[in-house]
Amino acid sequence: MGPMQTVHQESFKVFHPLPHFFGSGDEERDQESCRRPAPLSPLGEDLPYRVEVWSEDHKSVEQTLAMTANGSIGYAAYYEATREYPERYVVLRHKNRTVARWNPPDS
Length: 107
Prior knowledge:
By secondary structure, this protein is of the alpha+beta class. The chain has two helices and four strands; from the N terminus they run H-E-E-H-E-E. The longest helix has 14 residues, at 71-84.
């Protein structure tokens, strides 16, 4: 067996290049657009799937549990809401259309 080798911390540094943005040729305008944040859509317009828990009298939404753009995530949230609130009316909506609903059993 040979002599032990000393490992220096510098040998483990990883090079991280700076990000490069490919532009249209007008670098000043491209840099300005990169600094400006994208406009936000009002009240989750881009999140069409909603999971809602309704009041006990079924007249109003008591709580919105999830808002998402993905139907699979919306259904997963709906499924979990039906398990979390088995005695409540739970609805999965896509925009204004009801996709699924949980009616609690009559007591």
